[in-house]
Design goal:
The chain is α/β, with parallel strands linked by helices. The chain contains 13 helices and twelve strands. The strands form three sheets. Strands 2-8-7-6-5-3-4 form a seven-stranded mixed β-sheet, with helices on both faces. Strands 9-12-11 form a three-stranded antiparallel β-sheet, with helices on one face. A two-stranded parallel sheet has the order 1-10. Strand 6, helix 8 and strand 7 (about 220-225) form a beta-alpha-beta unit. The N and C termini lie far apart (about 40 Å). The structure holds 4'-deoxy-4'-aminopyridoxal-5'-phosphate (PMP).
């Protein structure tokens, strides 16, 4: 293998439902593990994808004309500022391959989204984690922006910031982000990963980062259709940046990285604002209800602006996870992020959340 490859730890996705059903002989497994939209895709997106099936013998539009035009209108930028990705992970990887490499460093907060380190190391760069905010702060385990700025050194080429962050759910306010962006030297690329922004925009003081693009040529905002838009299986995400940065990304991008079904479905999904509003509303109500119920079970949760909760289940988190799996509930252990006492639980439909809470209660009362 190339240098550094054996040092990588593969990204661990949530366990697939079919695997668990077969492994434990279960039926009716529910998955609250990967922060998908429990309402599914917009019916408009489904119809658009179905209509495009007959054209599968054609390559997709390699430049994503229709989708980029729609996204450019949505963000009030020029289409030349948009770069499409095979999911926003692809965008993050593309950024790493474009701006990182041996001798360069990628900086991110401890407990930030796991892909930043993987993308940096795959590109031959050094991952550097700055300490997170203290557990007793108002954003426990959240990004400490001052600590990030302090760690910027001569080799720092890219800083990744997730807002809101996964797995913690913590978020950043407009003022602190503005101060942070002003403090980052212009030669350093700042990536604002907004995979969960649709759930967070309602929070007061939450910024829409694309507003800063005009002043910050080194800013890249990444977004996805996998979460609120309900299209995780199609793999489509994008970045918004200066046209100059997009031009560099486009030189490294694989041709046809955004498939044809994804492009048409994303266009249709973007136009279905009612579907997003319904998903956001369901998440708001259910997240509050699940957090309250967890508190009632003696399981504290971190503040979350996403569609998931980071639940402190204690030293036996892996056993609790196993107990949930045996009863057909897939959640996400996050020991890999060095938060071994926590499980991340996506917010599902009310009956799915009820079932997860019921099993957590049972495990608490009757043991594992
Ligand atoms: N960023 C964050 C913070 C995420 O949580 C995820 C998904 N887990 C992604 C990016 C990537 O999602 P996708 O590739 O499906 O767009």
């Amino acid at each position: 293998a190339a240098p550094g490859v054996r040092g990588l730890q593969p990204y661990q996705p949530g366990k697939p439902m079919a695997e668990l059903e077969r492994e434990y002989g279960l039926r009716d497994v529910i998955k609250l593990a990967s922060n998908e939209n429990p309402l599914g895709p917009s019916p408009k997106a489904l119809a658009a994808a179905e209509a495009a099936l007959k054209d599968l013998h054609w390559y997709p539009d390699g430049n994503g004309f229709e989708l980029k035009t729609a996204l450019a209108a949505h963000h009030r930028v020029d289409p030349a500022c948009i770069t499409l990705g095979n999911g926003s992970n692809d965008c993050l990887d593309l950024i790493a391959r474009t701006f990182l490499g041996p001798g360069r460093e990628a900086l991110f907060a401890q407990h930030a989204f796991a892909i930043y380190a993987i993308a940096a190391m795959s590109a031959g760069a050094k991952p550097v984690a700055a300490p997170a905010l203290a557990i007793d702060s108002s954003m426990p385990y959240g990004h400490d922006l001052d600590a990030l700025v302090e760690r910027i050194g001569p080799n720092t080429a890219v800083v990744f910031v997730a807002n809101p962050n996964n797995p913690t759910g913590t978020w950043l306010q407009k003022d602190e982000l503005e101060r942070f962006l002003a403090a980052v030297p212009p030669k350093v690329i700042v990536v604002l990963d907004e995979a969960y922004i649709e759930y967070a925009l309602e929070a007061e003081g939450y910024p829409d980062a694309t507003q800063w693009l005009a002043q910050m040529p080194n800013l890249i905002v990444t977004r996805t259709f996998s979460k609120a838009y309900g299209l995780a299986g199609l793999r489509i995400g994008y970045s918004v940046s200066s046209a100059a940065v997009a031009d560099l990304l486009n030189r490294v991008r694989h041709p046809f990285n955004a498939n044809s079904l994804a492009q048409v479905a994303a266009c249709a999904a973007l136009g279905d604002e009612a579907h997003i509003a319904a998903a956001v509303e369901l998440n708001r109500e259910e997240k509050a209800r699940v957090a309250d119920a967890c508190a009632g079970l003696g399981l504290p949760t971190l503040p979350s602006a996403g569609n998931f909760l980071c639940v402190q289940v204690g030293a036996k988190a892996m056993e609790v996870n196993e107990g949930l799996l045996r009863r057909g509930v897939i959640v996400r252990p996050i020991g890999g992020y060095r938060m071994p006492e926590y499980l991340r639980i996506s917010i599902g439909l009310p009956h799915e959340n009820d079932r997860c809470l019921h099993v957590l209660r049972e495990l608490g009362e009757h043991g594992l």
